[in-house]
Design brief:
single chain; 7-stranded mixed beta sheet; 11 strands; 4-stranded antiparallel beta sheet
């Protein structure tokens, strides 16, 4: 079992930046491929970005448009999502996930962190 904890969310003006973090107490966290998802009010959860355990491969949703960067710091047992040029449409609860069991389906999930972008 891996317990994921997100942090770094908050309120930011459009055009601003936030860096989300996802960490776990269990060191096995570094062995998993990981991802970020988000869910906006009244919408279904959607994929944002994914990264392999060693950081060798990353994948982004089309709407990211070069604004977000996913990364690992295995020395800190932490995954990050750097979000720049935020838009009001990015307002959502952001979730980290680990160990994919099927495409875009993961075994472990965090509780989420709220990101609110004001226009």
């Amino acid at each position: 079992q891996v317990h994921l904890v997100e942090s770094g969310g908050g309120l930011v003006q459009a055009g601003g930046s936030l860096r989300l973090s996802c960490t776990a107490a269990e060191h096995t966290f570094i062995k998993y491929n990981k991802a970020w998802f988000r869910q906006a009010p009244g919408k279904e959860r959607e994929f944002v970005a994914a990264i392999t355990f060693n950081g060798a491969s990353v994948r982004y949703a089309g709407f990211v448009g070069g604004r977000f960067t996913i990364s690992n710091d295995n020395a800190k047992n932490t995954m990050y999502l750097q979000m720049n040029t935020l838009e009001s449409e990015d307002t959502a609860i952001y979730y980290c996930a680990a160990e994919p069991v099927r495409p875009d389906e993961y075994k472990y999930w965090g509780q989420g962190t709220q990101v609110t972008v004001s226009s």
